[in-house]
Predict the structure of TIGR03083 family protein.
Amino acid sequence: METSALIKSLVQEGQLLALAAEEAGPDAAVPTCPAWQVRHLLRHTGMVHRWATVFVAEGCTEYRPEAGEPDLDGDELLEWFREGHGLLVGALSEAPPDVSCWSFLPAPTPLHFWARRQAHETAVHRADAQSAAGGDPGEVAPEFAVDGVDELLSAFHARGKSRVRTETPRVLRVRATDTGDVWTVRLSPEPPRTGRTEEGPADCEVSGTAERLYLTLWNRLPLDAVSITGDTGLARLWREQSGITWS
């Protein structure tokens, strides 16, 4: 996706997150994040937005730790979240295309990285907020969902931090039935290697619409939201080991 399209998605996702959080209320449990209430969701996502803004707005080329979550609640917390979301959108929209700043996943430019990462960060937590408000995780546009699946498989889980590993080589295929996109994920004792082609046989295939794949692979829908053929143990391995943690 183009950087401008990702920023547009970030705008929409942040607004929807705030609306769902307001509807649910700060005390509401977040079913997709069992340890959280809505207040924790807002504090976390708002903190991440401000953390990302520093790199883009200040052209910071070295890692900086986040400033911590605020001791805010209720309407004050919601306003703080909305303000931080607006600051992030402004920083991304106003930054020059060639801005130099720190990033941590492969991308065409640092600006594209931050627009992509924050759009998907916000979209996943928007799904959390909507689940807390008593609804389904909500719609995800196919193109955006494909981009998010690709970021997850080809970037996040290409890192040494990935715990999705097998003792012997195995192949997991991921297929978006509505867009035709296919990923082949090669598992081993090393970090997964993912290609965007259908290469050889697979031990397990996970298929569904791009939206369903996006929400399932980010662990916001159960595995039965998609179709699984072959060795279901590989799908369960993903469920158990693929979680992305802040630290």
Remarks:
- The longest strand covers residues 170-176.
- The beta strands are 170-176, 182-187, 193-195, 204-208, 227-230.
- The CA atoms of residues 63 and 102 lie 6 Å apart.
- The first helix runs from residue 3 to 24.
